[in-house]
């Protein structure tokens, strides 16, 4: 999620299609076609093009149960939008279909006025298979936390240590819950995917998404890592994107609800929403879900959640997320606190309860994850775009210049066409 | 599955209930309450009482998709059978409910004439949660193989190496497919759970169910282990229970169908049967399902499969398994080849296509797995019993003296009561 420079163009989506290349094909797959966890090869490009659609085959996971009821109806009304034209931030004309290929989409679903108008799968993704959402996960954690705040189970003004006393001596000891929710804590932790010494790799070893070397001295579970976090700067001053905040928030949710994050998501959102398939989180060595990046869902279920939020929390015939919670997220936070972070593709944006708010002319807001994951909600155009991808570059700076103009152009076309 | 002597009685089911003891409770669980994979502690008793209901949270897995259709109806007609009386093989009177507790049942479901008359959950199991079937898995592999034989895709008389040429120099090089299916191969491989030097532990390291030490020289995937198997004795002479046969059979199924075992099971059985939940296999480092012991299902879905077999392959309004395949399994194999193996609790039994045939007065046959897993099909009583457990002793010799008389007594009562 860093703003690191984009390297020169690697192999294209077509050239790295895992189906075409035969990744993990064959019984057993030939040595050259294997994508494996233990040697850390799975997160290389193009191996990750298979891996992000198959996280469960690589690491331990827990289910987010869809419940015993049936799936909610997501009515279809196919529209030919593949040719929708936009101009990228660097001035290149591009169709919607070209945007998908250029940004290594594994799947994209567009919902307009509650109807699925466009759904495409590429690479290793299938309609019934979950794909990892990476930090899209955070928006689920943030929404659950905001729901518990609305119920009075979490006090946003309380010190974090009121909910999780063990964090008293960490950087979070004097942080408030709302500062964790909106990521305005001052932390020494760094999140730079291109730097192997960045703290984000310690987090990934702790949360189960990177192998732990034999004599490793770092934290080997999420909670232990959180307890070790050190403060740097002041809390509450400015937005700084650091995943450990979300993992703290996930623990606050667990302690406040008495439930595992996976069960909380299932009970509050997944089952009421009528998800088609179970989702899953990858877990650390002691069963803790990665609340900051570990959720895998099907594309359509991600779209359902987007529709739930767009409809002010109402979906599948019931109020799933309180309307006040959805409205507060849509309204966003103070752009002045967001600006210093320097996200050049998101001018005037803000970050609220683990959602990215564009404050653009349509009031669009987003869930975003590394390697191109995203949920884009455009209230004015009554449009939701769910997108999973396996981009060679982690940071969204590699996607935004192409995807964001395409989304806005499509939104405007849909408004014009009615 | 060995006939090793049963040690003196460990703590009871009530004393080791994972819910009561708080295994993996808390966020995060306290150090004393953790069940972990990397240190191999998960397979100790009583940790395994939590682990067998939560395999997916410990190791990588692949889904067996239930399909987009709804679950098949399993009508309920609750009957009070908990007090059903039997006499154990060592002469103790016992009720059905006492049998469940004494054999550490995690769940038991009894279907009579197509109706679910009794369903109970204990320990860490829940109706919607899959529990590992251990070697119950084999009967699924064997049934799929027999289906492919019926379709002419597998030749039971062909050498194994016709289907899997890489096995030519292994013990399986001069074995026939039917010898692998019925486990009459002559192999050096040993399967003694109480002996840490037994080959079964090499298999478990290879198939992903035991941690691999840093400098391990053994096979680190299932296929590599199969290729290393050495012959001992003659093929075709006698039954000898060795899981590597099933893993070879699973590869024969994959090569003959062109499908992963998980996809084959989903397409041929799980979806047509109208399973309620996805099942899953644990996989090795290169994505190969453990066809010999890695399948986890819900209890009710296991019962559905039992009903499918009892109804000669017909269930959910369709012929799922060819009637000829079901009949051949029910008929069994030559008890003379089974007798030398010395299963004292199964006198006169046989082993056919990875199923255990009792040849008792009701013609009952079974899928069986270590630590007390089982699917018991009694054609005469029109009764199916699905059972998952977490017994402290691996071998079924610890269950059979109690469970088998209880099953027969219940069957006779159901016949008498009509």
What does this protein look like?
Two copies of one chain form a homodimer. By secondary structure, chain A is of the alpha+beta class. Chain A has a domain at 20-64. Chain A is built from 14 helices and 15 strands. In chain A, the strands form four sheets. In chain A, strands 5-4-15-14-13-12-11 form a seven-stranded antiparallel β-sheet, sandwiched between helices. The longest helix of chain A is centred in the last third of the chain and has 18 residues, at 400-417. In chain A, 57% of the residues are buried. The model of chain A has no long low-confidence stretch (mean pLDDT 96).
Structure described in brief:
With 418 residues, chain A is an alpha+beta fold. Chain A has helices at residues 18-21, 47-51, 96-102, 136-150, 160-163, 177-181, 199-207, 222-227, 244-257, 261-270, 299-310, 323-331, 335-338, 400-417, and strands at residues 61-64, 85-87, 93-95, 105-112, 115-121, 131-132, 279-282, 295-297, 314-315, 318-319, 350-352, 355-357, 365-369, 373-378, 383-389. In chain A, the strands form four sheets. A seven-stranded antiparallel sheet of chain A has the order 5-4-15-14-13-12-11, with helices on both faces. A four-stranded antiparallel sheet of chain A has the order 1-7-8-6. In chain A, strands 2-3 form a two-stranded antiparallel sheet.
Show the helix and strand layout.
Two copies of one chain form a homodimer.
Chain A: H1 18-21, H2 47-51, E1 61-64, E2 85-87, E3 93-95, H3 96-102, E4 105-112, E5 115-121, E6 131-132, H4 136-150, H5 160-163, H6 177-181, H7 199-207, H8 222-227, H9 244-257, H10 261-270, E7 279-282, E8 295-297, H11 299-310, E9 314-315, E10 318-319, H12 323-331, H13 335-338, E11 350-352, E12 355-357, E13 365-369, E14 373-378, E15 383-389, H14 400-417
Antiparallel strand pairs in A: 1-7, 2-3, 4-5, 4-15, 6-8, 7-8, 9-10, 11-12, 12-13, 13-14, 14-15
């Amino acid at each position: 999620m860093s703003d690191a420079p984009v390297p020169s163009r690697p192999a294209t989506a077509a050239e790295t299609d895992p189906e075409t290349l035969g990744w993990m094909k064959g019984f057993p797959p030939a040595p050259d076609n294997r994508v494996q966890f233990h040697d850390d090869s799975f997160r290389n490009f193009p191996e990750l093009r298979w891996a992000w659609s198959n996280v469960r085959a690589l690491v331990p996971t827990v289910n987010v149960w869809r419940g015993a009821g049936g799936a909610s109806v997501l009515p279809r009304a196919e529209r030919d939008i593949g040719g929708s034209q936009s101009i990228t931030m660097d001035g290149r004309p591009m169709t919607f279909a070209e945007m998908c290929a250029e940004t290594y989409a594994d799947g994209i679903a567009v919902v307009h006025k509650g109807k699925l108008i466009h759904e495409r799968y590429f690479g290793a993704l299938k309609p019934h298979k979950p794909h990892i959402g990476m930090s899209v996960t955070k928006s689920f954690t943030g929404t659950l936390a905001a729901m518990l705040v609305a119920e009075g189970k979490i006090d946003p003004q309380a010190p974090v240590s009121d909910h999780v006393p063990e964090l008293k001596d960490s950087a979070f000891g004097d942080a408030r819950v709302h500062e964790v929710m909106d990521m305005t804590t001052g932390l020494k932790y760094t999140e730079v995917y291109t730097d192997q010494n960045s703290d984000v790799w310690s987090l990934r070893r702790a949360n189960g998404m990177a192998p732990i070397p034999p004599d490793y001295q770092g934290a080997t579970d999420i909670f232990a890592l959180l307890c070790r976090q050190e403060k740097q700067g002041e809390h509450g001053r400015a937005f700084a994107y650091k995943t450990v905040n979300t993992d703290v928030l996930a623990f606050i949710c667990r302690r406040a609800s008495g439930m595992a994050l996976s069960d909380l998501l299932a009970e509050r959102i997944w089952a009421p929403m009528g998800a088609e398939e179970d989702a899953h989180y990858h877990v650390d060595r002691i069963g803790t879900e990665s609340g900051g990046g570990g959720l895998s869902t099907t594309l359509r279920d991600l779209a359902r959640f987007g529709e739930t939020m767009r409809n002010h929390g109402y979906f599948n015939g019931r109020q799933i997320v309180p309307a006040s919670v959805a409205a507060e997220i849509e309204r966003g936070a103070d752009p002045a606190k967001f600006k210093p972070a320097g996200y050049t593709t998101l001018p005037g944006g803000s970050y609220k309860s683990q959602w990215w708010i564009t404050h653009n002319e349509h009031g669009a807001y987003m869930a975003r994850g590394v390697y191109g994951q995203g949920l884009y909600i455009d209230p004015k155009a009554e449009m939701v775009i769910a997108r999973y991808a396996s981009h060679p570059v982690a940071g969204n700076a590699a996607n935004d210049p192409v995807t964001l103009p395409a989304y806005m152009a499509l939104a405007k076309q849909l408004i014009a066409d009615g």
